[in-house]
UniProtKB/TrEMBL annotation:
Keyword list, A-Z: Signal, Sugar transport, Transport
Name by which UniProt lists this protein: Multiple sugar transport system substrate-binding protein
Domain of life the protein comes from: Bacteria
Claim: Signal is one of the keywords in the record: yes
Pfam families assigned: SBP_bac_1
Matches recorded under CDD domains: PBP2_TMBP_like (cd13585)
Family (UniProt): Belongs to the bacterial solute-binding protein 1 family.
UniProt KW Cell division keyword: no
Signal peptide: 1-20
InterPro entries for this protein: Bact_solute-bd_prot1 (IPR050490), SBP (IPR006059)
SUPFAM superfamilies hit by this protein: Periplasmic binding protein-like II
The species this protein was found in: Micromonospora echinospora
Length: 428
């Protein structure tokens, strides 16, 4: 790994204030320098600006290494596999690396620290993101940035077709998509991701809302249950029957979003974190007519994913865990979480979504849709495995088959067999 060039090109940042302490970590016996590895993200930029405040309060120095996502993963693979202790705090993706990190015992157990700290108030964190940062019933991470799936829609098109409210159920979504499409030639009723792997995360909310999941309670493959087959058929059928003409089966969010923002679709299911692409007049031709609604209910209710896209953990090999925890206390504490929320970074604390000041910069209906997602949200949007990319390819195949008119039931059976073999191989 080209560590020197990576750190050089990825803006490795060293912040060393060296100010006098009030409670500067003497109890830990660890270094007064906390080494923190963060990803390139708005959250990181906000934290860096506020670091002098933390250092003044604690007398600690914070050394920040900031990397792109791929570089971050490369660095973790090299250093954690080698048992390195020169990482203290790690910003990581619970749904991408969490299973691997937990299985390999890379992350320190934070259960006692998090739950015995009344000022930190771990109970304020939403249940679904906490589920994703828990491994073997141990808290191994603190969620800091969340995403949930919501329904984007065109207010003007619904009004034109006589609808005074967006769909509350998946049945209503299909009916409204068909009517709006019929009333507006050249406009698709619905668009969403279609790529085999890319679509899995957005399809997950459909799967959960039909009562299914990727695995069952015993950890066995479950993508061929009756509920899963219904979800595949619905999602693929909606795109086949009411999606864009000659719909591609290789669309990720950027292609699907482009269709919606160019005014070529009435409904679009997507992560709430991408909303500015639809509301920014510089990016969207329909910015003044976009509305947001909670994910429509299926037979099992409305069960969108509500996930932590990023979390903070402590390297289990760190010799500076006490001071590393002090950084997490501050960076994921109520004050910083509020500041991040006000800056447009969706947080994992329930209190920031309940605070009118914290959501004042969000579209009102988006904030309401997101709040609804936290009530029954599911803490994952993909299979919870070590080799996530490979698993997504397997469980995403029936999505493509359903879109192209193949039998989704037979495809789900084939995918389930392949997925179970994958799970068996990974368990060896």
């Amino acid at each position: 790994m080209q560590r020197r060039s990576i750190i050089g090109t990825s803006l490795a940042v060293v912040v060393a204030m060296g100010l006098a302490a009030c409670g500067g970590g003497e109890d830990s016996g660890g270094s007064k320098t906390v080494r923190v590895t963060l990803v390139n993200h708005v959250w990181t930029e906000n934290v860096k600006k506020a670091l002098p405040e933390f250092e003044k309060q604690t007398g600690l120095k914070v050394e920040v290494t900031q990397l792109g996502e791929d570089q971050l993963s490369d660095q973790y693979n090299v250093k954690l596999n080698a048992g390195s202790s020169d990482l203290d705090v790690m910003m990581y993706r619970p749904l991408q690396e969490g299973k691997q990190f937990g299985k390999n015992k890379y992350l320190a157990d934070l259960t006692e620290r998090s739950k015995s700290d009344s000022a930190f108030d771990f109970s304020d964190f939403q249940a679904a993101p906490v589920q994703a940062t828990t491994y073997d019933d141990k808290v191994v991470g603190v969620p800091i940035i969340t995403e949930s799936e919501v329904l984007y829609y065109r207010k003007d098109l619904l009004k034109k077709s006589g609808f005074d409210a967006p769909p509350k159920s998946l049945d209503e979504l299909k009916a409204q998509a068909a009517k709006v499409e019929a009333d507006n030639p050249g406009v698709a009723g619905f668009v969403s991701r279609t790529g085999k792997a890319a679509a899995v995360t957005q399809f997950s909310s459909f799967l959960f809302s039909f009562g299914g999941d990727f695995v069952d309670a015993n950890g066995k493959a479950a993508v061929n249950t009756e509920q899963a087959k219904q979800a595949y058929a619905y999602y693929g059928g909606l795109l086949r029957e009411h999606g864009p003409n000659n719909v591609s089966t290789d669309m990720s969010w950027s292609e699907a979003m482009a269709i919606f923002t160019q005014g070529k679709a009435a409904f679009y299911t997507e992560a709430n974190s991408l909303y500015k692409n639809a509301t920014d007049p510089a990016k969207s031709k329909v910015s003044d007519t976009v509305g947001f609604a909670p994910f429509p209910a299926g037979p099992a209710g409305s069960k969108p994913y509500n996930i932590p896209s990023w979390a903070l953990g402590i390297n289990d090999q760190s010799k500076n865990k006490d001071n590393a925890w002090k950084f997490i206390q501050w960076a994921a504490g109520k004050e910083q979480s509020l500041a991040q929320q006000e800056a447009g970074v969706p947080g994992a604390r329930a209190s920031v979504w309940a605070n009118p000041q914290a959501i004042a910069t969000y579209p009102k209906d988006l904030a309401e849709a997101t709040t609804a997602s936290t009530a029954n949200g599911v803490g994952h949007d993909r299979p919870l495995v070590v080799k996530v990319a490979q698993a997504r390819e397997i469980v995403g195949q029936p999505i493509v088959d359903a879109i192209t008119g193949k039998d989704p039931s037979a495809s789900a059976d084939a995918a389930n067999e392949a997925f179970q073999k994958f799970l068996d191989d990974e368990a060896k």
